Amino acid sequence: MNDLEFRQQILDTKSESFCAAKWYNATIWLGSGQTTSCHHPLPHAIDTDEIKQNPKAIHNTQRKKMEREQMQKGERPSGCEYCWKIEDLGPENISDRVYKSKIYPIEDLNRAFRTPASQDVDLQTLEIAFDRTCQFACSYCNPAFSSTWVNDIRRNGPYTGLVSDGRNHFTHTHDSSQLYKFGEVNPYAEAFHKWWESDLHRTLKELRITGGEPLMSAETWRLIDWFKTNKGKSKTCLAINSNLGTDVDIDRLLEAIDGVEVDLYTSNESTSLQAEYIRDGLVWDDWANNVERLLDSGKFRGIHVMCTINALCLDSLDSFLECVMNWKREYGKNAINFSLNILRFPSFQSLTVLPKNIRQSYYNKLHDFADSYRHTAEMHEFEWNQLQRLLGYIHEATEAHKEAMAQSILQRDFKNFYQQYDARRGKNFRETFPALADWYDTL
Ligand code: SF4
Ligand 1 atom 4: the closest Cα is on which residue? Predict the structure, then answer.
C-alpha cells in the first residue's frame, strides 16, 4: 500500500484528521516540563500535580486528550496546522500524519480510534530531552535548546529590532527551559524514571534521546548503560540524536553501544561553508567524517539525516542530498536516509521569505536533482514523496504558517537578524550566500 492509499484507506476512513502520533508518539522536554505529539505543534506544559499521582501524565496531558477527541470527531487540532497546510495544497499531498501513523500496526491505529479520549495510552515512540547542553548555536535554534545560544545572549545581549513571530526566541535566555539546576530534584525526570522502571521499558518500541546535544549529557550515557546492564529486559530500540560535531566522543559512543541496537539521527541540510554558517559550531569536514565513521563501524541500525528546510539551505540542498545518495551507493540504501522537515518558526527564516525568482531557481535545481533519481533504487518512497512535497511547497507556499506576518516584514527581520548574527558569530552572509547577496542588499 503506498502512502496515498494508506491515508485514504487507513486514516481517512477513521476521520480526515486522525493521526496516531497524538496517541503513541511524544517529545518530552524534562528540563522545561513540556511535551508535544510531534515536532510540529508547539509544546505545552505538563501538570506537576497530575504527574505526582500518575507518571503517565507526562505524556497523557489534558491537552492531548482534548486533541485526540477532536481527531476522533474529524476536527483539526489547530496545533497540527503544519499537516493541514500540506494537505490543503492538493488532494494527493502526503502530510506527516501519514508518516507518523504508518509506523504503527493497523490494529493499534484502530484501537486508538476506539479508545475513549479520556483514557491514558501507552507510548510506543518517545523522544526525550534531558537538558539543553549543546556546543552548537544554529541560526534556527534558540536558547531554549542550546546552552551556546544562552551564552550568545548573555555575552551580547538580546537580538534587537525583530518584530515577527520568532523575535522572543532571541531576546532572552529562556531560563524556563531549565527549571531545575543540576543536582536538584526534577519532578518531570522523576516521573519519567518511575514510568520507565514500572512498565515503559516494556511497552515502548523506540526511545529517542535528544537535547541539546545528548552525547554531552551524563543522563544519556546512563541510559545507554541501563540497556547494557539490563540486556533482554527491554525490547525498546534506542535512538540517539547527535549533531556529530567535532568534539562529540565518537570512540566512546562506538564502545558504549556495543551489543545495543541503536539508530543515530543527525541534522544537516546544506554543505561546506553554508552548513557552517547555518549550523554555527559545525565543521563540515568533521561532520562528514563522523558520519562515515559511524557508517564504517556497521554498528548502527540506521543513520538518519534530518534536514530542516529553511531559507538559506536551498542553495546547496541538492549538493547535500547528492552527498547522502553517494553514501547510500557506498554503504547501502538502508544504511542512511534523509527526511525533509520544513521550518515554520521563526517565520523570517522560512523559505517563504525568498522572492519568487530565487525560489524558482532553487525549485529548478531541486527538481533536476529529483529527476536524476526518479527511477533509481537508492531512493526510498518516503524520501521521494518528501522531495515532491517540498517542491510543491517551494512553488506554492505563500506563508510559513497561518499567523505569519506579511513577507515585507519578514524580509526586514531576516536582514536584521542575519546582520546581528554575522556580527556576533564572526560570519559573512554576503560571502557565504552569493546567490542571495544582491537581493539581501535591497532589503
Ligand atoms: S502535526 Fe501532523 S504529524 Fe504531528 S501530530 Fe499533528 S497531524 Fe500528526
Answer: 38
